[in-house]
Design brief:
CATH superfamily of the largest domain in chain A: MetI-like
Order of helices and strands of chain A: HHHHHHHHHHHH
Largest interface: A-B, 74 and 75 residues
Transmembrane segments (chain A): 99-122, 134-156, 179-202, 241-263, 283-306
CATH topology of the largest domain in chain A: MetI-like fold
Strand order of the largest sheet of chain B: 8-9-10-1-11-18
Number of helices of chain B: 17
Number of strands of chain B: 20
Distance between the termini of chain B: 44 Å
Low-confidence stretches of chain B: 1-15, 23-34
Number of domains of chain A: 2
Number of helices of chain A: 12
Mean pLDDT of chain A: 83
Subcellular location (chain A): Cell membrane
Structural class of chain A: mainly alpha
Strand content of chain A: under 5%
Number of strands of chain A: 0
Largest sheet of chain A: none
Oligomer: heterodimer
Helix content of chain A: over 70%
Main location (chain A): membrane
Keywords (chain A): Cell membrane, Membrane, Transmembrane, Transmembrane helix, Transport
Radius of gyration of chain A: 24 Å
Largest sheet of chain B: 6 strands, mixed
CATH class of the largest domain in chain A: Mainly Alpha
Structural class of chain B: alpha+beta
GO cellular component, one term (chain A): plasma membrane
Shape of chain B: globular
Mean pLDDT of chain B: 91
Strand content of chain B: 15-25%
Helix content of chain B: 25-40%
Shape of chain A: globular
Radius of gyration of chain B: 25 Å
Low-confidence stretches of chain A: none
Distance between the termini of chain A: 8 Å
């Protein structure tokens, strides 16, 4: 078991190296020029050349890659081209905010998704199932951008229940309660699509388990439905839930870019959008690398949890 | 982004109807309360929150660019002279700031400033002639220890022709230019790029060239407290400010990039003031009790530049036909719902040299058709792409329709603003026209615009420009007689209009929306505003 997990860890290293190469050279290959970005267009070719030299952008690509990698390892990135400030100070705090939103969204996804799926699954074919599945069908077709604006309009403009965006009340002193209040609406918007995906999976898994032979056997022996559901069906649908949750964290991170824009959440999404606008390579590269590494780590964690949940592995059979 | 299913239009419409219905029900249950209104008497204290439409750049006056950045920076850094921004109309008067008086030589080449005494930067460093010298050498003197190439490149827009800088005594400095430069005073407090705000030399030495932006230190009415990127920047009142006490204790600037979210933030009370109000929201904001001031003299202008790599657009007749084919009055009335003014000269409505009667090319589709025929092209033969950002797409389509009517086959491509800049920095020969937005109060804007959209893009080399334009611009730029300035710049703009190498379109007349909590906010004839006289209700 320990060897298996160790082996998974070792495999991550070459993967990260390949990702770093891809991230660097793909962003360099684009037509964008950091000095001729959207905001600094108002310069003559001579001014642009002068700035390019000042930033070391006239060096060959491999030399830029090596110094970038060195900066990444040494202090989490070099210096932003458009902000002239260390990349780590721009990317890390923003990514922490994104993780907070992803955590909120994932929590909602799992709790709501499993609850909806279970209810629909055990009431399979009845009214509760049909109504829930109709809502799921409609809900998964709502565009995040539009939904976000409707949520803001209803909960912040028409009624002052929730803040209109941001992470803190800029007039107040902040605090954890304030943060949670700000987290509700964007988490909900970011979680919706994944919640509904999980709900469908859980519903299908519950229905399938309930039809399976072992459940029929238990039932024939007089076990109560609640006991069967909690102890046996629940356990059997757990691995697919973990698996899908791992996958949805990925889609939540990508979906979060839009949610951050609408809810003015100061996360990696807005940092990346601004960096792309300014063709600010060091920020783009570090930001994308961070997201990619998170993907890899979440996948790793999912695999490890699945291993732990697998009784055959747990008892040393494999 | 792969997991974002897009709905059919019908589904979206149905849901809008359902949710709008429930919104109406909710609102019927009671109105949303808005905060207290600011009285007519100024109040000291309180916090103003500003919702900006873009994330700002750097709080380094010599390296910053973008109007939103200067709207923050100008509270921290002050300039030798300033503009009186207390009136909503009229070209702002040049007024003393860090200089108490100044003398301009008869040939308009030498400017001598007497500096204000007893002023200190917020870090305690005294403001004097040596501090000004340090600032100027940073972007003009390559032998200086603290010379900065990036600042030099940016600041050359204003200081490119500086011949010498002298410290006359502790409180007197003298700038001498190679040519007469009448617009120098007007350019000093100007915004966007090349801002002349004076920073503390001690701060630059302490934090370094890159560090000043994160630790900005000036003499202004507010001092920098913190910047949380993507979230907010906080300024607090400078308690040792040499001038009148600003009413506000604190100002927070928050970027809210999405138009609808920004409007929602204002309506919910999260912010007190927003910039760049979408035309669609003007009426609903006014109905909800917000002020959306009108100003028909703002130095901002939206225009299209030409790509001279496109073979058709090298012909003057084609470009003139384009200008005649676009009905700019209708554009302002229909697409912008009247919240914009048509621009028929590159000298924008808020410019010192503005002349409302100047019309480059009147709307005349018949004449445009004839010009295309004279140039030897059949209807539909002239083809190119119009590049725009997504917010400008309706405008681009309006132009497309106008061009179609005179036999020009234009395609519209629009991009999110994040990719638009990159796309226009990499033009291909099939690209024809691309959107721009800029503008100054200073009359030499004509020269700046011409350098930027024609000279820098080899317009003179590849297209049939007359050469008269460059001559006329130089005559105006090197003129030393203030009485003649406006006329000379008008001549330059008219010469340029004959070349038709730029297409002025319109200027906004609505831009800010203000909550009733805010008092004393004035939208002057400038691209920024003065917050030192604004206040908020308790």
């Amino acid at each position: 078991m320990a060897r298996r997990i160790l082996w998974r860890l070792v495999n991550v290293v070459p993967l990260l190296f390949v990702i770093s190469l891809l991230v660097f050279f793909i962003s360099q290959a684009g037509p964008a020029d950091p000095v001729r970005g959207a905001l600094s267009q108002k310069m003559s070719p001579a001014q642009i050349e002068q700035i390019r030299q000042a930033y070391g952008l006239d060096r060959p690509a491999w030399a830029q890659y090596l110094s970038w990698l060195k900066d990444m390892v040494a202090h989490g990135g070099g210096v932003s081209l458009s902000l002239r400030s260390p990349v780590s100070g721009i990317v890390f705090p923003a990514f922490r905010n994104t993780l907070l939103l992803v955590a909120g969204a994932t929590l909602l996804t799992v709790v709501l998704g499993v609850a909806i799926g279970f209810v629909a699954g055990i009431r399979h074919g009845r009214l509760a199932d049909r109504v829930t599945m109709l809502l799921v069908q409609v809900g998964s077709n709502l565009p995040i951008y539009w939904l976000g604006l409707i949520i803001i309009y209803l909960t912040a403009v028409e009624r002052r229940w929730l803040p209109a965006g941001g992470m803190h009340d800029l007039r107040g002193d902040g605090g954890f309660g304030d943060l949670l209040l700000h987290l509700v609406a964007p988490s909900f918007a970011a979680s919706l699509v994944s919640t509904l995906i999980i709900a469908r999976f859980v519903r299908a898994a519950v229905i399938e388990s309930e039809r399976s032979d072992y459940v029929r056997t238990y039932r024939s022996q007089g076990f109560g439905r609640a006991a069967i559901l909690g102890k046996h069906v629940g356990r059997n649908v757990l691995p697919p839930i973990v698996n899908i949750t791992g996958l949805t964290v990925g889609s939540v991170i990508t979906g979060v870019v839009f949610v951050e824009t609408i809810f003015s959440w100061p996360g990696i999404g807005s940092v990346l959008l601004n960096a792309i606008a300014a063709s600010d390579y060091p920020v783009i590269q570090s930001g994308v690398l961070l997201v990619a590494v998170t993907f890899v780590l979440v996948n790793l964690a999912t695999d490890v949890v699945l291993d732990l949940l697998n009784p055959r592995l747990r008892h040393g059979a494999a | 982004m792969k997991n974002l299913p897009m709905p059919s239009r019908h589904a979206a419409l149905a849901w809008t109807a359902v949710l709008a219905g429930s919104a109406l029900l909710l609102s019927a249950c009671g109105g949303s309360g808005s905060g207290a209104a600011a009285g007519s008497r100024p109040r000291d204290g309180g916090t103003l929150i500003v919702g900006q439409y873009q994330e700002v750049t750097q709080f380094d006056p010599n390296r910053q660019y973008s109007w939103e950045t200067w709207r923050i920076d100008r509270n921290i850094y002050e300039t030798l002279v300033d503009e009186d921004l207390s009136s909503p109309t009229g070209v702002p008067k040049i007024v003393p700031r860090l200089a108490t008086s100044w003398k301009v030589s008869d040939d308009a080449r030498t400017y001598t400033f007497t500096l204000r005494q007893g002023v200190k930067f917020s870090d305690g460093t005294p403001f004097d002639a040596e501090a000004v010298r340090f600032n100027v050498r940073r972007f003009t003197d390559p032998t200086f220890t603290y010379y900065d190439k990036v600042s030099a490149a940016t600041m050359s827009l204003v200081y490119g022709d500086l011949d010498s800088f002298k410290v006359v005594d502790d409180h007197t400095v003298r700038y001498t230019f190679k040519h007469p430069f009448l617009d120098f005073l007007r350019q000093i407090p100007n915004s966007g790029n090349a801002a002349s705000g004076i920073f503390s030399p001690a701060a630059l030495k302490k934090y370094g060239q890159d560090g000043l932006a994160d630790h900005p230190v000036g003499t202004g009415p507010f001092t920098f407290q913190e910047r949380v990127r993507g979230d907010h920047t906080t300024l607090v009142r400078n308690t040792r400010y040499w001038g009148a006490r600003p009413h506000l204790d604190k100002v927070v600037f928050k970027p809210v990039g999405d138009d609808q979210s920004r409007v929602a933030a204002l309506r919910s009370g999260a912010v007190d003031l927003i910039s760049r109000v979408p035309p669609d929201s003007v009426a609903s904001l006014e109905k909800a009790g917000f002020t959306v001031p009108e100003n028909t003299n703002v130095p901002q202008i939206i225009y299209y530049s030409y790509n001279f790599q496109n073979p058709y657009l090298r012909d003057k007749r084609v470009r003139q036909a384009i200008a005649q084919a676009v009905d700019r009055k209708q554009l302002a009335a229909k697409i912008y719902k009247g919240y914009a003014e048509a621009a028929t000269s590159i000298i924008n409505q808020g410019n010192e040299a503005h002349d409302p009667s100047a019309v480059d090319h009147p709307y005349d589709p018949a004449a445009a058709k004839k010009l295309i025929a004279d140039a030897g092209y059949r209807p539909g033969q002239v083809k190119f792409t119009i590049l725009s950002d997504t917010t400008g797409q309706p405008t681009a389509e309006f132009i497309q329709q106008g061009l179609k009517a005179v036999g020009i086959d234009a395609k519209v491509e629009s991009f999110e603003w994040i990719t638009y800049g990159t796309r226009t920095a990499n033009l291909t020969p099939s690209d024809g026209m691309y959107l721009g937005e800029w503008g100054y109060v200073a009359a030499n804007w004509v020269q700046i615009a011409h350098d930027h959209s024609v000279v820098a893009h080899d317009g003179d080399k590849y297209s049939d420009t007359s050469g008269a334009t460059n001559k006329a611009i130089e005559a105006a730029a090197h003129n030393a007689d203030p009485a003649k300035a406006a006329g000379l710049w008008q001549d330059a703009a008219q010469a340029w209009a004959k070349d038709a190498t730029i297409l002025p379109l319109l200027s906004f007349n609505r831009y800010y929306a203000v909550s009733s909590r805010v008092g004393g906010f004035v939208w002057p004839q400038q691209d920024h505003y003065d917050l030192s006289r604004a206040w908020v209700a308790s």
